[in-house]
Every structure is written in structure tokens, then in C-alpha cells.
Amino acid sequence: MMARRRSPWDWLREIEREIEEEAERLIRQVKEIEVKTGCITPLYDVVETDGEFIVSVDLPGSDKSEINLEVKEDRIILEAPCKRPSPTSRHGNRYLLQLKLPEEIEPEETKARYQNGVLEIKLTKKSARRGVRINIQ
Question: Quick check: pTM over 0.70?
């Protein structure tokens, strides 16, 4: 009896199934960590331009005065209370975001603005050291 040969589509379906299972496993792990630590990873978005990174973080219900933002040369660390109308054990009580940046930035030049539950952080990239052309005499 001859065994059926697998088509490339069979391989792709199997890979897709494995990716979905891994994604579900990671989501379960994140939720378990959130429940154990009481921290929620907020939704965020990072946009990169030539000279800066713009990070937008959703912090609904947080008060600007209670947001703690620390900026280092290669990362940001953000903590804020998470206020919900009715706290439950399924959700954490504070936001925590630790984000490693793909390039170094100038921490002193960081600007942050909080409006309507969204924190926008503008991070200036470190100036790349550029060579200088030397005229040879």
C-alpha cells in the first residue's frame, strides 16, 4: 500500500495550526502573569520616523498625576493605576509597560502628553555619529 504524499498546502496548514496554538499559549501566559502580579500590559503603538519614536499608550481611567514614566537610553518603563468602575479578580489594578526601543534615544529630550486616556511619548533618536570628509593636501 502506498502512502499519500503530503502537498505543500498540507505543510502550510500544519504550520498555521502550530502558530495559532503558540499564540494562544502566549496569551494564556500573559493573562496568568497579569492575574498573579495585578498588572495589565496596556495597549500601545510605536511609530518610527527618521528622527524620533512616537509611542502612544492607552491608559483609560488613569490620572495624569499618577502616571510614572521613566525613560532610559534604550527603553521606557511606565506604571499607572488602573481604575475600573467595579474591580474584579480577573483584572489587575495597575498598568505596567516595559518597552525596549530598537535604537538609543536622548532621554533628556523626551516629551509626553496625556489627553483623553492616551499618553503620547515623543522620543528623539540619538544622533548618529557621522564621519567628516577630510581633504587631503
Answer: no
